[in-house]
Amino acid sequence: MNAEFIDALEEIEKEKGISKEIIFDALESALISSYKKNFGSSQNVEVEIDRDTGRVSVIAKKMVVEEVEDDLLEINIEEAKEIDDKYQIGDVFVIEVTPKNFGRIAAQTAKQVVIQRIKDAERDVIYDEFINRENEIITGMIQRISRNNVYIDLGKTEGILPPTEQIEGEVYKQGDRIKLIILEVKKTTKGPQIVLSRSHPGLVKRLFELEVPEIHEGIVDIYAISREAGSRTKIAVYSKDPNVDPVGACVGFKGSRVKAIVDELNGEKIDIIIWSRNIEEFIANSLSPSKVIKVVANEKEKSAVIVVPDYQLSLAIGKEGQNARLAAKLTNWKIDIKSESQYDGELKS
Known about the structure:
By secondary structure, the chain is of the alpha/beta class.
């Protein structure tokens, strides 16, 4: 290696932000492995690279002993003293053992190390960028589909939408652009893995933040979301400003805001309800679109009996119990729904 190599490292340091010293350290470690592979694996050697000229030296280290048992690791005291009288038993004897053709091996190794370090640095840049964007919404293009995993082009890198984070029944086609939430960023041996989601409740939250300025500005807050992706979502909102209707803000003029979100989620139904500090009122609201006559709450057990008109019992429970299930998730209370006649009958008995 020569001064041109040093100049190249300086360019890499400027352009890629990779410290020259990191490359030198990695290169010295790699060259020790190369030396042992080609010239003797049992020796105790170090490789030194002159930081100014690029000259590579291989230094062998041996223990100074009275009687040699392993001549690769030890040197006799008399032999050591012939070279330098200062050596004593127990000292480390140092000698340069650089092979004649080691420069060629060093140049090949240097190329591999530099390429690898550039790859590592680029991966680190991508990881650092995306680790700070977890739970953010992102738009990407579907690049390919393999083994039910959907790979999304995110510009500098690609993300993965695994089957568990897909919306059931949603069709993914190559070239389509979709919105997703960055669920998790992992470090792997192949670089950062960016796990995306279409089914996470956080995606609905981020979509509302995009579409509703009052949420983005902090006037309207999202209290909770419960979601069965692809089918129905319940979102509880409240306003910090008494003059702003939180449901109206989320729905938008002629339903334009919520329609944009429903369209992005391919027709998923969205119930927007008002959160209330009064738990009975909140539970009643959570069963929207059903009307509620009465809520009997048990604060200690966090359970409630909800009484609805007879003709609305099936609406309150929902198809396969979905409405009741989402209301329970939203409020974090156990919910028991009864029709008015059922409740009255139990009171009389």
